[in-house]
Amino acid sequence: MAGTEKSKAKTEQTKGKAKEAVGRAVGNERLTAEGRADQTKGDARQAKEKAKDAFRH
Questions:
Q1: pTM for the whole structure
Q2: At a CB cut-off of 8 Å and minimum separation 6, what does 39 contact?
Q3: Shortest CA distance to 35 belongs to which of 18, 47, 53?
C-alpha cells in the first residue's frame, strides 16, 4: 500500500508541474495555480509517506 501512495504522490507532482508549465505558456493564471496546488498535494503526500517509513524503521 505504501508503494501505491508514493506512486500517487509522484504522479500528482508530475501532473502539477505539467499543468503549471502549460498555464504559464498560454498565460492562464488559473491553470498555473492549479498546477502549483497539485504539486503541493503531491509534496504533502510524499512527506506523509516518508514520515511513516521513518517510524517503521
A1: 0.82
A2: 12, 13, 16, 17, 20
A3: 18
